[in-house]
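Lecture 7, part B: from sequences to assemblies.

Below are the input chains for today's worked example.
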Amino acid sequence: MMFFKNTYNEFIKIAAKPRSYIGLIALSVLIAVIIFAMKADGSTYISFVTASFEQTLSFSGDIMNGNLIAFIILQMLIVHIPLLVALVTGDLISGEANMGTIRMLASKPISRSQIVLSKFTAGALYTLLLTIWLGFLSLYVARWIFGTGDLMVLTSDGLIIHPESDIEWRYIYGFLTAYLSLLTVSTLSICLSAFAENSIGPIVSTMAIIILFTIIGTMDVTVFDTIKPYLFTTHMAAWRSYFEDPVPWDAINESIRILIYHNVILVAIALFQFNRKDITS
Amino acid sequence: MKQFIVFLFFIQICNLHYAQQSKVLNAYVTKLNSVKDYSVNAKIVAAVPMIKIKEVNAIIYFKQKDKFKIETKGIAVLPKQGFLDLNKFLATPSKYMAIESAGKEISGVQTTMVTVIPIDESTDVILAKLWIDSKRNIIMTSQLTTKSSGMLTTTYAYADQIPFGLPSSLVFEIDVKKFKMPKSVAANIHQTNKSTNNNKDQKGKITVYLTGYKVNKGLSDSIFK
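Predicted structure of the full complex, as structure tokens:
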């Protein structure tokens, strides 16, 4: 019971901070900009994608629809949203240490482990809120503006056109997997926050790790081939696999497993660190 | 005397032009021109390498001289130069030369091959080869070579609309070796297996099944807007 009350308090703390709304506002502005750009000149973007095919083929029907816009938004923003997540969650423990409230928190009739777990839960709720907001804006607002229709997806193996009736479940699973990816970022930043005494350190460190891992993942060097499958950034784009045909379920399950392992290990490290943290000085 | 020479020259030009027209093709074009408009239900099945798409239902509208529209609920893939381009090109005999020669047997029918060469160099069509059933005045197979899209082979099948020369199915064969994926858009940075089959020379096939023709019923121009 104390755990839930503390989690509620943690969420109130997040809601009270102005920086928590930066993510929501930034997402809204970014999506509005993308939707405006697509409305104004989306056909150029589409022709760039289909140019190679249109030498021989012609596409009839409404290609530029809400489903495609949602896919474009997701593809563009999923790289940047971790920053918006880390901005809030990276401060959850270190912020308390910085302000000196951590001692007061630890004096409550609740174990240190429960304090950390309630912070993780509050961070997960904030991340969920951000993902739902992203889904609502990218999918439902885009559909409202552009209408619905078949989804044309360009992969490195070619072009896949999914019928409208076969899209909804892909987005639902896609957003759930994207949430798991963002949750990993949230967990990482809270874990780093347990080691720090200020807010900036964990936020910058989280982004630095994501950038480093992403660069390692993109480098076509064989020396990194053995570690690439174990980097969480490699699996952050697993949501995209639901839009392949056939869906590579084994690869998706593997990605989900690795992301879950990351979450469990990072929570364990944070628990270990916070339980032995000296908060008296 | 001068006028007589000009007259002889004119007669010679006319004879030359006449010699470059094909009776078989002219009969087909006459049949083609008897269709003022039509609408037809289409089922489009595309088997094109590097493109995955399920079959799509559509309604096709056509009205003389060159009004054409495909109405689909979803996205349909069709050859760039498929339905209208050949007929549009053939509709004006003064713009091309046609040479008849012996054809091959297609679906048990002995055909006449007509090679069509445009006179106007600015046209997109370089060459068209038509295998025509001269008894029924219908095209059995066509091979259209264009500057923009390369070669397109179309095989025709017919059912109840033979009097109008309208097919019940069309099978388009297209060359897909030139497809290149824009890496900045298509590349999945998290993909570890690299695709290797993009540059292979492959043929794509798009089959269009046409049913429920409504011919010369009078289509409104507003449909094509």
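Note for the exam: Residues 22-183+199-213 of chain B form a domain with the outer membrane lipoprotein receptor (LolB), chain A fold (CATH 2.50.20.10). Keep this in mind when comparing with the next example.
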